[in-house]
Amino acid sequence: MAAGVISCGAEYTPKPKGFNRIDLPQQTYQPLQEAHPYTFEYSTHAKIRPDSSGIAQPHWINIIYPSLGANVQLTYKDIQGSNDQVLNNLVEDARKLTAKHQIKAYAIEESQIKVPTGDIAAVFELEGEVPSQFQFYVTDSSKHFLRGALYFRTATQNDSLAPVIEFVKKDIVHLLNTLKWK
Fewest CB within 10 A of the end CB: N or C in the chain? Predict the structure, then answer.
């Protein structure tokens, strides 16, 4: 009874609503060391792992950000010696995979980046509660085709992930700007 009397006399101050603090590391990069028909620089805070899915093909990799719960899936296709229809099909597949997010996306903004190799990268930024907020593909139109998609292994709302999404998007743009075909 004494505890009840004492506790009733204490003033209660509610805590204000708070937001998770996301401390992002400084963006630094390292060259890809694995033997692939491409090379680029990627974040020193990420790890490269081969794609272990059942449909994985050679040179498919994941760039995993363990501390951020993010994953950039890269798929590669060798198109050397193929006809133009093969490249057209790959581009169309990349667009279809992006379009599958239209159900939950508020907007899908497509832009193009001219990378230092002279190739054009198509970049798709998706807004809304979508599983992949950033996707891209780049090709030299004769030998190589590389597609990428950013995913998070969390149920956190995308507006809460916004700083992390922007952080990884900068890393992806850096990847595209340092991409070289072998």
Answer: N
The number of beta carbons lying within 10 Å of the beta carbon of residue 112 is: 11
Residue extents of the structural domains in the chain: 50-181
Give whole-number Cα distances, 140 to 80, 86, 134, in Å: 10, 13, 21
What's the pTM value of the predicted model, to 2 decimals? Answer: 0.84
Alpha carbon distances (Å) from 24 to 43, 63, 85, 156, 162:
12, 17, 43, 17, 12
Q: What is the CATH number of domain 50-181?
A: 3.40.1000
Q: Encode pLDDT of 36-78 as tens digits.
A: 999 999 999 999 999 998 899 999 999 999 989 899 999 999 9
Cα(140)–Cα(143) distance, rounded to whole angstroms?
Answer: 6
Which residue type sits at 21? R
